[in-house]
Amino acid sequence: MSKVLYVITSLSVGGAQKALLNLVASPLSTEYKPFVLALRPVDGVQGQFAQAGIPVYELQLNHWKGMLAAPLRLWRLVRDIRPDIIHGWMHHGNLAAVLAWLFAGCRPLLLWGMHHTPEAATAERMQHALVLRLGQWLSRFPDRILYVSRRSQQRHRELGYASGRSLVVANGIAARTHLSADVREDLRAELGVADETPIIGSLTRFVPEKDIPNLVEAIRLFVQGGNKACFLLAGEGMGTDNTVLAELLESAGCQESVRLLGVRKDAGRLIAAMDVATLASRCEAFPLFLAEAMAAGVPCVATDVGDIAEFIGSTGLIVPRESPAQLAAAWAQWLALPATERQQRGQAAQSRIRDTYNLDAVIDTYRSIFQEKPLTTPSLQ
């Protein structure tokens, strides 16, 4: 059986991590045995990988001792596993995958996975600038660069990344198990949300790309307009311990309408309780949260970034980025629709994910890619 070493930045709770879990826990693992290497130990979805029987290793790059020991540990790991395929996952993971490929002592198939869209230099955190530049220089080494969205592929080309062997492979969504109405009722009781109050949810992160200040301003305008809803905000940095976020909500005067849940590992349960799934991002590639919401029959209202408009289609509402007034108006517009129409649109969203973005089709694509022969020299295109 061929062996695949996936190299990812961390196993925190995020869309890229869930996409990797979907892939390695799929039937593809019966043909290509997966091993996962995380560069940094972050509490997240390690338990789910363990439950799926996937070996997980960590390089401990969160402190200087780990950084000093990392090259030797990586060399030993690669020589021990002897992978036939090395698949980088996210920018930092892609760079480490090149080093693993060099340490392999042979020439396994080298793949990069791009799960981010660098829309503009001003939207990038400073520490990512060097990573992007190194990635541009090293992008001639992979046999394939796999992008989860067309917009991500376009932006990386504009930044000078090699394009001769790039391919768009959207995230695949596994069939969702129907969650009973009791799940929705239990979560509402847990959070103290009345049955008649609509829930608008966002599984996101407190980072510049997600534009949380824009989201908070939209909530303020929505509430100020006399609309009622409870906003569930979950994810990294979205907890009550984030003083910056707490100050934003207090200044906006809408803290009573918001529940800050922080990092949660029950995303399916949260989504099942939502009436609307939303993102206010200023840049995205293929946000798995929205696709998972659609797969559960929850309609989406989101900003027009990445490939969001393409995969949501007519099943939800799209607004310009950095336009809180239009985002607030879209929420109000959606909740004003008759319940039967909202239900029909939710069913249409389910069908769209099932027909266009199902995991089985993605697995077939990966199977074809894994069967390709590695290049003998880096591409100079």
UniProtKB/TrEMBL annotation:
Leader peptide range in chain numbering: none
Record domain Glycosyltransferase subfamily 4-like N-terminal: where: 13-173
UniProt-recorded Gene Ontology molecular function terms: glycosyltransferase activity
InterPro entries: Glyco_trans_1, Glyco_trans_4-like_N
Keywords, in A-Z order: Glycosyltransferase, Transferase
SUPFAM superfamilies: UDP-Glycosyltransferase/glycogen phosphorylase
Its EC number(s): 2.4.-.-
Pfam entry (one): Glycos_transf_1
Glycosyl transferase family domain span: 184-350
Designated name of the protein: Glycosyltransferase
Lineage per the UniProt record: Bacteria, Pseudomonadati, Pseudomonadota, Gammaproteobacteria, Thiotrichales
